[in-house]
From TrEMBL:
Lineage: Bacteria, Bacillati, Bacillota, Bacilli, Bacillales
Statement: the UniProt record of this protein carries the keyword GTP-binding: no
A Pfam family that the UniProt record links to this protein: FlgM
Entry-linked SUPFAM superfamilies: Anti-sigma factor FlgM (SSF101498)
One GO BP annotation of this record: negative regulation of DNA-templated transcription
Residues in the signal sequence: none
All copies of domain Anti-sigma-28 factor FlgM C-terminal, residue ranges: 34-87
Species the sequence originates in: Paenibacillus contaminans
Keywords, sorted A to Z: Bacterial flagellum biogenesis, Cell projection, Cilium, Flagellum, Repressor, Transcription, Transcription regulation
Protein name: Negative regulator of flagellin synthesis
Record's keyword annotation contains Hydrolase: no
Family: Belongs to the FlgM family.
Length: 91
C-alpha cells in the first residue's frame, strides 16, 4: 500500500495556496477584512426605530390609561372605525 502519493503533495491545503496567491496579486499583506456598508435609507429606518425616553414615557402613560379603562369596562370603540381599518386587509 502506497501512503505518500506524489500527486497529493501540493493538494494538502489548496485554500491556503489560493489565499496566498490572491494576496500576492493584490499586493496586500495580511488577511483581508470584510466590509459592511449601510445605505442612507437603512440608516434612516434604524433612526426611526429608536424611541426616545420621552416618547416611551408618553406611550407607557397612554397604555396604562387604556388598561385602566378596559379593566373598568369604560373603553368602547366604534365598530365602523374598526371595520374601516380591517377592510384593506380583507381585499
Amino acid at each position: 500500500m502506497k501512503i505518500n502519493e506524489t500527486q497529493r503533495i501540493n493538494a494538502v491545503n489548496p485554500y491556503k495556496n489560493n489565499n496566498l496567491a490572491n494576496h500576492s496579486i493584490t499586493g496586500k499583506k495580511g488577511k483581508r477584512r470584510d466590509e459592511v456598508q449601510i445605505s442612507a435609507e437603512a440608516q434612516e429606518l434604524l433612526g426611526t426605530q429608536r424611541v426616545s425616553t420621552q416618547d416611551q414615557e408618553v406611550r407607557n402613560k397612554k397604555l396604562n390609561e387604556l388598561k385602566q379603562s378596559i379593566d373598568a369596562g369604560t373603553y368602547h370603540r366604534d365598530a365602523r372605525q374598526i371595520a374601516e381599518k380591517i377592510l384593506p386587509y380583507l381585499k
